Amino acid sequence: MNIVPVASGDIDAQRWIRWLDGEVFTDAEGPLSGAGPVTFHGSHWFIGWDGDKPVCYAGWRPHFDSTELHFRQPLGFLYRGGVLECARGHGYQKELIRVREEGMRAQGIATSITYTDPLSIGSMKNLMACGYEPYLADKTTALYSMDAVYRFVHWRKDL
Ligand SMILES: CC(C)(COP(=O)(O)OP(=O)(O)OC[C@H]1O[C@@H](n2cnc3c(N)ncnc32)[C@H](O)[C@@H]1OP(=O)(O)O)[C@@H](O)C(=O)NCCC(=O)NCCS
Description:
Shape: globular
CATH class: Alpha Beta
Number of helices: 4
Bound molecules: coenzyme A
CATH superfamily: Gcn5-related N-acetyltransferase (GNAT)
Largest sheet: 7 strands, mixed
Strand content: 25-35%
Number of domains: 1
Radius of gyration: 15 Å
Helix content: 25-40%
Strand order of the largest sheet: 1-2-3-4-5-7-6
CATH architecture: 3-Layer(aba) Sandwich
Order of helices and strands: EHEEEHEHEHE
Distance between the termini: 24 Å
């Protein structure tokens, strides 16, 4: 599997991201359900190719939590991603986590964060294997509301 970054002007790659997203998520109103470039909010996307077949994808973007605002130092937020069912079990999500961390480091970002659904055992195992630890978010560190604190497990790693 070969992971390739998506260039902001690459319309074909952006279509593949939307197709992959539709295959792995069932939320019709997800963040990628609209039109236009997928690189909104400064997000960076990657596609994992098995030969000429796209099998996984993921994105990250800078995130400012309210404790960081005064120095404008963004955190890196592992935004969204997935692996096609037929390609699971090969460690692809871990590879996608690492490539996004490299992108964060290249931009001088010192901390990576994300959240998971508490039912997403695969994601949680992969995050732990990559060195992430769960944290109890509060109103300054929640991604993005207190509602998320109750619904999702929050994760953090110093890069
Ligand atoms: C989450 C996801 C990306 C993981 O795909 P993957 O990289 O192939 O990971 P795996 O399926 O190998 O799962 C990782 C580990 O969790 C384990 N696991 C997965 N589902 C499990 C379950 N229901 N119960 C127990 N263990 C489970 C796997 O056995 C594996 O264990 P190992 O590391 O000891 O081998 C993929 O399942 C997916 O795309 N899901 C839908 C979208 C999603 O949830 N995206 C992530 C949030 S944005």
